[in-house]
Amino acid sequence: MAQASQRLLVVGATGSIGRPVVIAGLAEGYAVRALVRDARRARLPARVELAVGDLTRAQTLRDVVADVDAVVFTHGSNVRPPGPEAVDYGAVRNVLLALDGQRPRIALMTAISTTDRKGAHDWKRRGERLIRASGLDHTIVRPGWFDYNDADQRRLVMLQGDSRQTGTPRDGVIARDQLALVLVRSLRSDAARGKTFELVAEHGPEQPDYDTVFGPLEADAPGTLDGARDTPNMPLADEPAQVIADLERIRAIFKGPARV
Ligand SMILES: NC(=O)c1ccc[n+]([C@@H]2O[C@H](COP(=O)([O-])OP(=O)(O)OC[C@H]3O[C@@H](n4cnc5c(N)ncnc54)[C@H](OP(=O)(O)O)[C@@H]3O)[C@@H](O)[C@H]2O)c1
Questions:
Q1: What's the pLDDT tens digit per position in 10-59?
Q2: In the chain, where are the structural domains located?
């Protein structure tokens, strides 16, 4: 159980994964702060501290991130503007900039097949890269498809290499509440530190101790931008100049690993 004084910031707290993360955070003993765009529409438990901000505007996030011990990112863009660059990627960059050297533990949710280079996922992968470049203690969770799991499909499976890329639920499925708990429990797990994995569930009961599932995974190599066993199909030299500049800025602020 986390100490009562530990403050967890939930990014995307009003979303379909953010809400169960808020509940899981409270259940695990955190003081939960929820980043919301509109406090009147938030409809979160009364003990949750609401912090109003817009992920696409870094200047609104300074107070939101003050004195946080941990951050779970569950935000996501939809098809309407401002889109994945501003939201999926911009949220990570802007929160890191607002942290300005504070060093909370991070759990970032992206998606299975983040490395497929089909376009839509590239901004999620760039967000992952910012987290690794910061050198902050992190766990990056790439979930399978939500809402396709059977009731008895609760055995957690954590994969690496991101090789399931059909773009359909055949790539794997996961329940939202279980994903939320994996994100929250990763925050105080030594076994999950520095690791990136795809998360799905198979038929069977849930493992009682998540560390037994985190433990065998390979950690991201310090100083590398991609997750352990990822295909190296996004060369830094081909990346947009602004993305390279963001990586350098984040690394400088957090004094992250030199070799990114
Ligand atoms: N569906 C799947 O099977 C699946 C599988 C793997 C990964 N994913 C990924 O999961 C992600 C999240 O999905 P979801 O279903 O939880 O989405 P969601 O319910 O739409 O939640 C998105 C959250 O992000 C927040 N947000 C968006 N833009 C913001 C901004 N500018 N400032 C502050 N907050 C902002 C939303 O706040 P508001 O309430 O204010 O809008 C909301 O809390 C998506 O990116 C998706 O790619 C989905």
A1: 999 999 999 999 999 999 999 999 999 999 999 999 999 999 999 999 99
A2: 7-254
> Which CATH architecture group holds 7-254?
3-Layer(aba) Sandwich (3.40)
What is the Å distance from ligand 1's center to 258 Cα? 32
Ligand 1 centroid from CA 164, angstroms: 22
**SS3 call for 235:** coil
DSSP string, 191-217: GGTTEEEEEEEESBPPPS-THHHHTTS
The residue to which tokens 């951050």 are assigned: 71
The verdict on the CB of residue 54 being under 6 Å from ligand 1 is yes
Contact residues for 148 (Cβ-Cβ < 8 A; gap 6+): 169, 173
Could you tell me if the CB of 87 is within 6 A of ligand 1? yes
- Best residue among 75, 109, 141 to mutate for probing ligand 1, ranked by most atoms within 8 Å of CB: 75
* Residue nearest (by alpha carbon) to ligand 1 atom 9: 111
C-alpha distance from residue 193 to each of 34, 57, 61 (Å): 23, 29, 25
